[in-house]
Amino acid sequence: MAGEVRVSVSVFGALRQVAGGAELQLSLAAGARVRDAIAATHLADRVDLWVLLDGRRVERDAPLSDGARLTFFQPVGGG
């Protein structure tokens, strides 16, 4: 549909429960940015969220293109 970007989102770990699943398909307005996809998955308040856009780590203001693939996860640490 004109005026939209469609993106696929993979969500890992405990974030799946908040986002509503592990694999999501979103339709967002043309000109959407990563932050819009984050808001659509109810993860906007997560400061510990890492985002990959087509396999590369990006900031929340990165623009989205039709067919983009996002990955959301929390960093983990150990020792």
Q: How would you describe this protein?
A:
This protein has 79 residues and is α+β, with helices and mostly antiparallel strands. It has a single domain, classed as Roll (Ubiquitin-like (UB roll)), CATH 3.10.20.30. 15% of the residues lie in helices and 33% in strands. The protein has two helices and five strands, in the order βαβαβββ. It has a five-stranded mixed beta sheet. Strand 3 and strand 4 (56-57) form a beta hairpin. The longest helix is centred in the middle third of the chain and has 7 residues, at 34-40. The protein is globular, with a radius of gyration of 12 Å. The mean pLDDT is 94.
Short description:
The protein has 79 residues and is an alpha+beta fold.
Please outline the helices and strands:
Layout: E1 4-11, H1 15-19, E2 23-29, H2 34-40, E3 50-53, E4 56-57, E5 69-73
Parallel strand pairs: 1-5
Antiparallel strand pairs: 1-2, 3-4, 3-5
